[in-house]
What does this fold into?
Amino acid sequence: MDKKIVVFGTGQFGRKAVEYLRVLGISDKVIFCETNVKEKRIGKIPVVSLLELISGYADIGIVLIAIKDKKESERLRSYFSSVFIDRIPVIEISDFIRDNYGKLENDGDSHYCNLCNSYLDEFQPGSIAGDIELFKKHHIVGAGYRRNMYCPACKGDDRSRWVLYCLSNYTDIFSSHCNVLHFAPEDNISQRIQSNSYCDYYSGDILIERAMHKIDITNIQFKDGFFDYIILNHVMEHIVNESEAVREIIRVLKPSGTIIMSFPICLDMVTQEDENVISDNDRLQLYGQVDHVRLYGNDFLTRFKNYGLSIEVYSPTNFMADQDIEKYGFIKDDMLLMCRKVI
Ligand SMILES: [Zn+2]
It folds into this structure.
């Protein structure tokens, strides 16, 4: 059995230690330990209490103490050494972290990925569709080049970070008893939702290898009014029969349920959609991606309200200062739609 690397401390120093182990490619063996456990998981990494660690230490390969307070760090090292009687190496790494991460004492201008809880010097730029005319002429929210797109630690993207932020701050999906249907699931968000043990979680995709269930969104195999939350990020722009899809997700949604939805939006024009546009190149030039069947425009709200939904739009720029948007690596004018049935 693989021995675990225990990082004691879930604060800045502990998280920096994990960042370093991630660079070495061994972060999958890490577990966090903390005196008082507040969250059972940080990103993908389990958090155990001191007591749990001591009572089940057979799998432990090494303990790395990564906390800011030097006296406490030394006390813990003595404590662990006496408990493990030198059978397991116990190393204080706080000085190492302090020496190697100059910005650590003051993270005011550093970046933070909420998907993996990493403090970062910077995000990485990226672009999915490349350098096409459409992106030069028009600003499309959630598409084209973005300076703060990828997290260097978990490879999660800016859109997923905003979705997670909204789910955490504006829904009770991580704490309530709820049935969730998640289309085209993003791994990091899916895992976070499944860590809510009260949640009945179903993921779906037209391709079974991408999710737990093969689901055709225009013909969903669940009963009426079953789900509290239905999540579909960057799904609708791929669906030819939009009206059937929306009717189906409304059908399987509870009367009190919420649909959480996003897609690329171009506010410079109305929705672009032409059933005669079917070649990869034409779709790329007109919609921005070869497998998109439309590009939503400034009529998107009316379009979805007409299906019987009330909609609230969540944009980072309406909720936080520019410096925080930069820190979290969100798209400033990103738009996440929270939709409810009009009853
Ligand atoms: Zn990340």
User: Anything to note?
Assistant: The two ends are 55 Å apart (CA to CA). The mean pLDDT is 89. Residues 159-341 form a domain with the Rossmann fold fold (CATH 3.40.50.150).
